[in-house]
Amino acid sequence: MKIESNVSLQPYNTFGIAAKALQLVRVTQTEALQAMLRDPVWHGQPKFVWGGGSNIVITGDVKPLVIKMENKGRRLWREDDRHWWVEAEAGENWHDFVTWTLAQGWPGLENLALIPGHVGATPVQNIGAYGLELQDVFDSLDAVDLDSGALFSLDAAQCAFAYRDSVFKHGPDPSQHGSSHMGLAGRAAILRVRFRLAKNWRPLLGYADLQRKVASTGQTQPTAMEVFDWVCEIRRAKLPDPAVLGNAGSFFKNPSVTPEQCADIIGRDPGVVHYPMLDGSIKLAAGWLIDACGWKGKSVGQAGVYEKQALVLVNRGGRESPCTGGEVMTLAKAIQTSVYERFGILLEPEPVVV
Ligand code: EPU
User: Domains in the chain, ordered, with CATH?
Assistant: First the structure.
């Protein structure tokens, strides 16, 4: 495999941060990747797997070998009376894949339309939007162990999905035994993902923004294509297009609090946006908390808080004079401090910092 040196990562991260990979390899074939991982030159060397770069903040040149997943392909993997199983290679663009499944007549991914990034990264953070999470449609994935080059597969239980979380975000947990409980952060490259789409499809319209579309159009039984169009419209109105204004989507997770904590906050701030969860906890809208602290439109250097949605941090310098990862993280820390001082809640960043 060809190892490239000093490769600009600016085109490969949606923030548009300027930094280099000291060494980078592009993966199109599983066997070539396995051979490289087993090569004594690379065995034991630090490595970093790169997908669509849509959930990442780069704070300097990347020293570990960047393994950029560029493998392509998608197919109907299996079908029975009740389901279609659809498989896509890690390097496929997520939104193109969603569009393609709908064009084939396989609904089920429409609520996840327009999420930036590649298929291989979708299980890592268990992407979710408009009432659907990846785990709801996930079947299984194939991956390669970065240490041994061995192939393995995981089902949904082994991925340990939670809100914007999975086994791929955690290091090994010494208190747990058995590979299904081992964190896989930095230890695996996802090669392909399989989704299970139900034939008795029903639109998922519970989310408030979609309810508003139902009310404004009078369409109570939309097709999957109509839901897809609605989700695209809602996202375009609220979230900046990374091709125009660099960003990494929601910068913080929505925090969970106890009903007592929530009641305390409501006592002081009656307008706080909150949602009761099935487990009895309450989820708060991080965007509302940040907005309430007056952050919309504020900046540190070229890193700013998006005017229309305080949960999104943006690169105001474009490609020419982009923000640095340091500016993004300084802004993020200042936001965390002010939200903590006012509400007693520590916001947890969503993107990976490298
Ligand atoms: N809000 C404000 N001010 C703001 C931002 C939000 O008051 O500046 C309020 C909104 O009015 C709304 C509430 O906060 O009442 C929630 O906002 P929104 O519906 O836009 O959703 P969100 O919680 O900000 C989450 C996901 C998004 C996903 C949307 C739709 C997280 C961290 N973010 O955003 O995911 O698209 O719901 O399902 O869970 C992403 O992960 O990158 C992402 C964009």
Answer: 3-69 (3.30.43.10), 74-198 (3.30.465.10), 208-238 (no CATH), 247-353 (3.90.78.10)
